[in-house]
Amino acid sequence: MPRPTRPAARRAAAVVLAAAAVSASAGCAVSPVVNQFSTELQYAPSDGVQAYFPLSETDEEGPGTALLVRNLLLIGPEEDGPARLYGVLVNDSLDEVVVEISGPGGLSGEVTVPARSSVPLGEQQTEDLGSQELPEGAEVSGDLLADPVGAVPGELVPVTMVLDGAVLEVETPLLNGSLPEYQTLVPTAASTTPGVAR
Description:
Structural class: alpha+beta
CATH class of the largest domain: Mainly Beta
Largest sheet: 10 strands, mixed
Number of domains: 2
Order of helices and strands: HEEEEEEEEEEH
CATH topology of the largest domain: Immunoglobulin-like
Protein name: Copper(I)-binding protein
Distance between the termini: 90 Å
Number of helices: 2
CATH architecture of the largest domain: Sandwich
Keywords: Signal
Strand content: 35-45%
């Protein structure tokens, strides 16, 4: 059997090495078993936290529904001072839901979220943001202000939500106004008047 010439042997070796390099590098980069795709990771994209109440299970009629709690956080000016609860409740079901919210320092309220809509918490009564339009049928009542909050900025504060008897306790971050985007959301003496829905 004739031996391959030197150039042919070199080409064959180069092809084998290139194939090995491509398969080794491609295997690490695209394997969802080894490296999960970053677009598949579930995470809170802001400083607040996320939670949810399942409302229905996935079945042959379609996917399940839930009340989604998005970007929940408390903002207050100082240690153990007043702090307002912010976030958004998103109802992706076909039925209206009513959520009771409670926390430290007298934080207590009730939020009605119409079907297929979202309701912001805290923002609709903040002067700097102006009056936020709520969806038709939505209502936020009570006082979503913890005064005092009983924690230091940077700590987690338990906030309890109740929906149809199901209880969800959310460890909610307490932030101050050191970041520019939160400076206008810090409660002031004028914004902590008792008896005003927030």
